[in-house]
Amino acid sequence: MMTLILNTLLILSFCTLNASEQSLFDGKSLDGWVPVNKNNAKYWSVIDGVITASNNGKKMPVNTYLATEKMYQNFEFKCKFRLSGDHKTGLINSGIQYRSLMKRVQGKNDVHKIIGYQADIGKGWWGGIYDEHRRGLLGKGNTKELFKNFKEDAWNEYIIRCVGNKHELFINGHKTIEYIEKDSNIESYGVIALQLHSGGIAKMEYKDISIKKLPPSDMSLPLFLGPQETEINGKTLARRGNMIVSWNKTNEFLEWKIPGYFKSGHYKIIFHYMNDKNRQGSEMKFTGGLQEKVFLTKSQRSKWGPEQEELGVFLLQPGNRLQLFCTKLKADWALDFLRLEFISVNKGETSKLTFSIHDTKIHGQTLKRARGMIVSWNKTNEYLEWVYPESFKKGSYKITLKYMCDKNRQGSDMVFSVGSQSLEFKTESARDQWGEGLKSLGKFQLNPGDKIQLRCKKLKADWVLDFLKLELQFKPLIRI
Fold first, then answer.
1. What is the longest distance spanned by two Cα atoms in the chain?
2. 398 - beta bridge partners?
3. Cα–Cα distances in Å, from 147 out to 32, 94, 141, 238?
C-alpha cells in the first residue's frame, strides 16, 4: 500500500474556487497524481485541459486508476466528468474512488491494488457506492430525479461529501445516496482516485476537479506516512516520485508531526526503504514521542530494491515529532525513503523513553534551542522541565542525562528532581574541548503527571552545560 501527499499549486486561471477549496488539477499536467499501477500509466493523459483515460480506440483490457498524492478524511470533492463509449463492445463503466488505500502487490515495485469506496458511474450503476476489493456493493443510487433530465455521455458533475461515518453522493445536484458506515474498523481516510473500468471501447474524461477539506473527526494514525507527508531537513534530500532520494549526508533528516486530532495509542512502526547489499550497513536513528530506535540498514539484494525494518512499539500522542536520522554513513548512499507503516497494538510496557529538546519546557530568557541542543545556560534561576505523560504507566526508571561540557567548565552544582525525589550532583568532563558527557542520575519512581526538573544551584564557570537529552530506562520490580 502506498500513500503520498499532494502539494498542489492553486492555479486560478483554470478554475475559480472558494477560499476553502483547492484545485486538484492544473489543467496542463498530471502533477499531484500517480497511477495506482505504473504499468497502466499509458492509459492516462491530459488532452485539451482534460484528464483523459482510454486505450486509443481499443477495448479497455484492465481497470485503471489515477490517484491523488494526498490522503483526505472529511471533505467535499467536486468534478465534472464525461463517460463515452460503444456499449456493443463491452462494459462502459467508471467511478471515483475515495477514502481509498493503495496496497502494494508483493514483489512488484509501483504496482498496487486500490481498496476503498467508489462513487459509481455507468449504466446500471449510476450514483451508487461500491467498496472496491473489499465488500462489494454497499448501496444502489436513487436516480429517479436525476434521469428526468440526464444524458449519460454528456458532461455531468459529481459531488462526494464525507463527514465522519456519513457519505453523500450528488450527480448534477441530485442526491443519489446517503450511506452510514457502521464498521468502525474501516478506515475513514484515503486517496481520491479516478477510474476507467475494463470492458469495451470507452473513454473517460475529468475536469474542474477540486476539494474542500472539512473539519476532521477523531481518528487513528494513517496506516502509512509517505514522501509527500514528510518534512525534509537538508539541501540534498529530494522527493522523486514515490521516494525521497539522495541521502548521502549525516546532518540531514526527515521529520513528521502527529496532528492534534489523531488518537493517542500504541503503534508498531515499520520503516520501508530501498537499499542493496553493497550499500547496507549505515547507522540510522528513529525517534518517536519519547522513544527511539537505532539500527543498521540491511539488504541481501544485488540490485537496489525494497527492504523494511521493524522499529518497535511506540506510544504516540498528538504533537509528537517523528524523526529519522542517518548517524553514520557506510557507503555513498544511505537509502531511499519509501514510507512509515503504523499498526495499532494493545498497550504494553515501554522499556525506554527519551526526552529530547523538543519535549523540554524552558524556564528562562537566555536558554534556547539550537542545533539539536539547549544552549546558553549561564544563570542559576533558569531551569528545564519535563512531564511524565498521563498515558504512561507508573514505573521505576533508571535515568541518564546527556549533555555537553569540558574540563574547564565542569563543577557546576546541579539539582535533578522527580516529584518529591531529588539528586544533587556536579557536572563532570575530562574533555579539553566542548563535547558530549553522560551522568547516571540513578533510579526514580515515576507516576503519570510527575514533573521532572533540572536546575543549576551554583554556577562554576561562564557556562553550565548544553542539554542534549534525558534517557529513561524502564526497570521492572523484582519480587522474591
1. 90
2. 443, 473
3. 34, 18, 11, 49
Where do the domains of the chain lie, and which CATH numbers do they carry?
21-213 (2.60.120.560), 224-348 (2.60.120.260), 353-474 (2.60.120.260)
- Backbone CA torsion sign across 428, 429, 430, 436: positive
DSSP run (H or E) holding 452: strand 451-458
Q: Are 250 and 329 in contact (CB under 8 A)?
A: yes
Q: How far apart are CA 304 and CA 247, in angstroms?
A: 14
- Residue 432 contacts residue 407 (beta carbons within 8 Å): yes
Long-range contacts of 141-146 (CB under 8 A, 24+ apart): 141/169, 141/171, 141/176, 141/177, 142/175, 142/176, 142/177, 143/171, 143/174, 143/176, 145/174, 146/171, 146/172, 146/174, 146/176
Tens of pLDDT, residue by residue, the chain (480 residues): 333 322 222 222 223 344 488 999 999 999 889 888 888 889 999 999 999 998 888 998 989 899 998 888 899 999 999 999 888 998 888 999 999 987 766 555 555 788 899 999 999 899 999 999 888 999 999 999 899 888 988 999 999 999 989 999 999 999 999 999 998 778 888 889 999 898 889 999 999 999 999 988 777 667 788 887 889 998 889 988 778 998 999 889 999 988 776 777 888 899 999 999 999 999 999 998 788 889 999 999 999 999 999 998 888 888 888 999 999 999 999 999 999 988 877 755 556 788 888 789 999 888 998 877 999 899 998 999 999 887 677 888 899 999 999 999 999 999 999 988 999 999 999 999 999 999 999 999 998 889 999 999 999 989 999 999 998 887 553 332
Report the predicted TM-score, pTM, of the whole model to 2 decimal places. 0.58
What is the grid cell recorded at 465? Answer: 552545560
Residues 6+ apart with CB under 8 A from 183: none
CA distance linking residue 230 with residue 273, whole number of Å: 14
Give the position of cell 442526491.
175
Residue among 49, 80, 43, 342 at smallest CA distance from 198: 43
